[in-house]
Each structure stands twice: as structure tokens, then as C-alpha cells.
Amino acid sequence: MSRTRDGVETVRVELGERGYPIHIGAGVLGRGDLLRPHLRGRQVAIVSNEVVAPLYLETLRQAIGEGRQVDVFLMADGERHKNLETYGALMDFLLEHRHNRTTTLVALGGGVVGDLTGFAAATFQRGVDFVQVPTTLLAQVDSSVGGKTAVNHPRGKNMIGAFYQPRCVLADTTVFDTLPDREYRAGLAEVVKYGVIRDAAFFDWLETRAGALGARDAGALARAVRRSCEIKAEVVAADEREGGLRAILNYGHTFGHAIETLTGYERYLHGEAVAIGMVMAADLSVRQGWLPAGEAGRIRALLETLGLPVTPPALAGDAMVAAMGLDKKVLDGRLRLVLAEALGRVIVTEDVDAQALGRTLAAGEALCRG
Ligand code: NAD
Ligand code: GLY
User: Fold this and answer.
1) Which of 11, 172, 229, 255 is the residue whose CA sits 20 to 30 A from 220?
2) CATH for 181-366 (1.20.1090.10, 1.10.10.10, 1.10.357.140, 3.40.190.10)
3) Mean pLDDT across 96-120
């Protein structure tokens, strides 16, 4: 699935002519030899923000090298700027700087920058190339891979977007050195998700290397990022537009989104809410008689060891159900959930027992503890 050359691991997302490499390793952000083959024309627009640019922009500029028109658009930091206003400002910027259809947009930042840049690339002059240079763990293992791009609308997150694949992803594992602790751990939640949904052996490995991952051990991280990207690449290649299988990537997310919505997107980072959501989904899977209690306990324990929250805030069950019902993963008004059958195996199901769900929503601290 992946190959290693010069200490760089490359995972390929197999999507025919829209397929692309994910290069993973220390220092890939500065590797012009990996980036330049994906810059088709002589124009490049780097999109970043005021936090990330001072740290990594210069290295990226050097990787692009001389002889191109390189313009830099810096957006304000934060999810609330992933909106149509920033998108509009980026369009103005590209037109003012006379970017044409052969330009390449390069997203340097976390998922916010990546999602907005990808949507801009999908729509600017009916679509131009873009490259993802993800600088958070969550962006490296999730948002930069798979082609979901979007901005938010006041009525809902990611409500305006497109499926649009990048030409290449450069996942530099040294960028974690500057990442705040909470952001880093939130990314680990998504890494755990891959073990739960697709690879029991990877889950076992995460358990044995939890200490190393908590301490940001470079070797453990490179392997965790690589395996996560391999799994995401495999799922996306099988179901690019979420007609079926891709929905398994939403394990823990329906509960998680409801928690984020009901706490006003202020209390939890996305990965933290997903960690709680994964524990709730495991608890419900046990109550439905599908997942052995011991395996659910292991999911909770690993997340806890990695410093993630595993207990939901006190929220009324009715409010949770309503918030889950509003989630866009609901099809034709029926609640669809991703539930676990074993470590490494999940299913997307509408077969949700209302009483069992009620018990999960009321379990609080007792989640996955019977
Ligand atoms: P983020 O982009 O807001 O980054 C988190 C914070 O870390 C920001 O303040 C950012 O400026 C800062 N930062 C980034 N890299 C840094 C570094 N190396 N050192 C120091 N600080 C750094 O958040 P995120 O968690 O990366 O992404 C969340 C977004 O991703 C959400 O908008 C979510 O909807 C989206 N998302 C998209 C997909 C997808 O498939 N497209 C999947 C999951 C999440
Ligand atoms: N983050 C879920 C997906 O990419 O489908």
C-alpha cells in the first residue's frame, strides 16, 4: 500500500486520473522535488493563516523555488473564518493578482485552511489544481486526504462544498513540534478511529505505543500517520462520494457532532467530541448485543490514556437525539449510525434500538462500563 524512499513514505490514493500521492516524513514540507512536479503552471497561491505562516511559510516558499509568481493569502485563524466571506476575499485576491486556470493553490495549515482552499480550488475558474500541506495531526490523517472541501454557513457546518481531490499531500511529521497539546491529542482521536473501523492489529499497536504517541515520538507518529492515511485512502478509493462504505469514517461523529452543536462549538475541539462520540457508539454497540463489552472498554481506555475526554457533558437525551437527527448523515429522516461489531469492524446501520440509545445517552460516566 505504501512505499518508502529517502525516509519518505508514500501512500497513493487510487482514483484513476484523479489519484495522488501522500508523502509522509520529516522535512517533506521543504522538499521541492516532491512538490514541484505538481505545479503545472507558473502561478502559485499559498493560502495559510497568521499562526502557521510565521512558522512554515518560508520553508514552503523555498521548496517552490525561483521562477514562479508566488502570492500569499493569509486568512484569520479559526473555524469561524471558514466561511463565504473569507472564500470571497480569496477569490478577490486571486483575480486581483491575475491568477489563471493553470494556477495551483497550496493550502498550508490545519483543516480549516485546507477545507477552504480546497473549495476555492474546486470553484475558481471552474476548478484549478491544489496541493495540501497539512500542519495539524487531524489534517494529516483526515481532512487533507479524500477530497471533501467546504466552508460553513451560519445554519450549519460544511454546508457549502464540493468533492475535489488535491494533486498531492505533503505531510511533514516535524510540524507537530509546534502544535498545541490539545490540538495534537484531538488528532490522535481520529487515529484511534482508524483502528476501530478497519484494523484491529493497528488498534493493538496503538495500545502498546500509547506512551510514545503521547510523548510525540517521531517514529511512532510516522507510522500512525502512514497507517491512518493508508486506511483513509483505501476507503476513499472504494467510495469517493460516500455512497456507502465511506460513511464508516464517520464512526463516533454523529454523537460527536451533536455534542459540538449543543455546546456551541466552544467547549470541545472536534477530535475531543469525536473521542466521546466513539465511546458512546461503542457503548451502544454493546447494548445492541453486537460488540463484546471488553472491546468497548479497550476503546475507552485507549482514548483515556491518550488524554482525551471520554465522558459526555450533562446534556438532555432529547436534545441529543434532536441534534443527532439534524445531522446531515441522516437519510430520509431515519437515524443512521456507524456501530462496531468488533475491534476493526464497523457497520452503517439504521437498526438502532431506541431504548438502548436512550440508555447510552443517559450513561454518563458509566459509558462502556456496563
Ligand atoms: P485548525 O485548522 O483550526 O487548526 C487548529 C489550530 O492549530 C489553529 O489555531 C491553527 O492555526 C493551529 N495550527 C495549525 N498547524 C499548526 C502547527 N503546526 N503549529 C502550531 N499551530 C498550528 O483545526 P484542524 O483540527 O486542523 O481542522 C479542523 C477543520 O477540519 C474543521 O473545519 C473540520 O470541519 C475540518 N475537517 C475536514 C475534514 C475533511 O474530510 N475535509 C475531516 C475532518 C475535519
Ligand atoms: N472525515 C470523513 C470523510 O472524509 O469522509
Assistant:
1) 255
2) 1.20.1090.10
3) 98
